[in-house]
Specification:
By secondary structure, the chain is an alpha/beta fold. The chain is built from 13 helices and 11 strands. It has helices at about 20-25, 30-40, 55-75, 80-95, 95-105, 105-110, 120-135, 145-160, 185-205, 210-215, 250-255, 280-290, 310-320, and strands spanning about 10-15, 45, 50-55, 110, 115, 135-140, 165-170, 220-225, 235-240, 265-270, 295-300. Strands 8-7-9-10-6-11 form a 6-stranded parallel beta sheet, sandwiched between helices. The protein has a 3-stranded antiparallel beta sheet with strand order 1-3-2. α4 packs across α5 (about 95-105) and α8 (about 145-160) crosses α9 (about 185-205). It is elongated and about 65 Å long.
Amino acid sequence: MIGSPRNPEKSVVLEFDDNRLLPQLFGSHNIHLARIEQELDVSLNSKGNLVTISGVHELADTAGVVLKGLYARLKDGHNVDSTEVDVALRMIAAGEKGKAALNNAKLYAVRTRKRHIMPRSPQQACYLDLIERSDLTFGLGPAGTGKTYLAVAKAVEALVKGEIDRIILSRPAVEAGEQLGFLPGDMREKVDPYLRPLYDALHDMLPYNQVATKIENGEIEIAPLAFMRGRTLDNAFVILDEAQNTTSVQMKMFLTRLGENARMVVTGDLSQSDLPAGVASGLGDAVSRLRGVKSVSFVEFGEADVVRHALVPRIIKAYNTNNGQG
């Protein structure tokens, strides 16, 4: 019970040194403060550049961490909107791991030409850290958790910094059985529909004309998995998306393309394979074979890490409950 001896109430007073940032921190008509109050069961009162937080000892401290984290984002030049408030609250709900990720979000920030990208869950922070430190990283889990988007962001950052010479993005065109010849148009027109999510991510991070130029000069290559055969990928950041749709033979072929000064990220959702019935996923096979191998890392995302519309995690949970029957 709030205010009981076991859960004593306390007041925390925060002082912010830049009044110009407070309208965005508080939100229109204090909507951000109201969201924090609702989620954490505390009372927030603002006066000038001071915010007084009242509530159960631990929750008052937690609200303070959320406000300080959001204010730090504003001071770094980032916007704070209702989505960012919900992200901060999600981080805090994850416990100490989430609190550490929120307090140190700046360490994981990915800087591209168009935007700075911050982790939106503790697992995203872990993922960004492991991509930075590992030669091969597997990002596993449902759609909407940022697996591919964050991998592309790290690739663009590495290219902009000059750490690599090129980015190679690939997907298995399993919807067409990778038999692309029957599709209309030239080769680019045949494969573009299967690779569109990768283009979308690139355009979110680089100006449109730069994406086109880098594709034209070979700094960025977007190609179906079948085009990787027989190559050695040096000085590159290589991403395989939708890897659950590879066979074991295809996965081995892809992983063994890794060359000198190269990093590789493989993403996929083992629950969403489009392979023919009876064909085992190369992603599942690779995960079982490579766990424990030096310089190979794995990050597993769950429904709590979904950062799309708030309804999406609930949809995923419904489908995961009794196979969608309940």
